[in-house]
Specification:
It comes from Haloarcula taiwanensis. This protein is α+β, with helices and mostly antiparallel strands. It has one domain: Bifunctional nuclease domain, CATH 3.10.690.10. Helices cover about 25% and strands about 40% of the residues. It has a 7-stranded mixed beta sheet with strand order 3-2-1-7-4-5-6, sandwiched between helices.
């Protein structure tokens, strides 16, 4: 089963290796799913959440613009697998040509999928299996009362 998820914030977490690592927090099924991301991915998500354009288009902005120009739309993103500590995702898209709908599914890193979803305001869904394995109670996370922790990026 899939559950709608919301991006609770992007901040700095502590990875198993102990260093401060950017993390995106997804809330699904009343749990928080932390996904560690790169500094660039975190910055891209923060800019999208704040609605602030970068001085030049970032990769995610470019991809969204290209998808739109090709007459397609992104319907939703899915975080649908977790294997050996690695999350896997998909982007569901559609395109209309000559009044015919073509559905497309693209394999994607969850960090890219989430960054794109923030730009096109499409749903993010997470499967039960992923939440069961990676979900944590919200009280385990100190979000500092802010939707987006400044990473100093």
């Amino acid at each position: 089963m899939e559950h709608d998820a919301t991006v609770e914030g992007v901040g700095v977490g502590v990875s198993e290796e102990g260093g401060g690592t950017p993390v995106v927090l997804l809330r699904a099924r009343e749990e928080i799913v932390p996904i560690f991301v790169s500094k660039d991915q975190a910055q891209s998500m923060q800019l999208a959440m704040a609605g602030e354009p970068f001085e030049r288009p970032l990769t995610h902005d470019l991809l969204v613009e290209m998808v739109t120009e090709f007459g397609a739309a992104i319907d939703r993103v899915r975080i649908d697998d977790l294997a050996d500590g690695t999350f896997y995702g998909k982007i569901d898209a559609e395109q209309y040509t000559d009044d015919r709908r073509k559905d497309m599914v693209f394999d994607a890193r969850p960090s890219d999928a989430i960054a794109i979803s923030l730009r096109v305001d499409c749903p993010v869904v997470v499967t039960d299996d992923v939440i069961d394995e990676a979900g944590r109670p919200p009280e385990q996370f100190d979000q500092g009362g802010s939707d987006s922790e400044d990473l100093g990026l």
